[in-house]
Amino acid sequence: MEGLTESEIAGFAVGALLLGASIAAQSVDGFIATSQRRSLNMCKRCGDLRMVACSTCKGVGSVRKGGTFTFAMLEDLYETLGAETNAADLVACSKCRSKGRLLCPECSKVR
Ligand SMILES: [Zn+2]
Ligand SMILES: [Zn+2]
């Protein structure tokens, strides 16, 4: 640590401490949320809703033909521009049967 003043070293130490504390706080948060749900006998995946949003259609229930990768982005763009979404380009999501939600895999397997 040559060339560093004591206050600089102290600054590094405080910075590292704060960084470590904020990382620890985040993981503690996640841990508490999960363990709270578990102690309340709630599902840690869906919080006892027994439903999770469909990952294929993002809960919308329909997907754009030719792939879902840019679907949400395009949808936002269309809404921003105020243009009508071409319904002919949308097909019902086959994963959730256009409901936008799926039975929670955690709940349906345990109970
Ligand atoms: Zn879906
Ligand atoms: Zn669940």
UniProtKB/TrEMBL annotation:
Q: Which domain of life is it from?
A: Eukaryota
What this protein is called in its record is: Uncharacterized protein
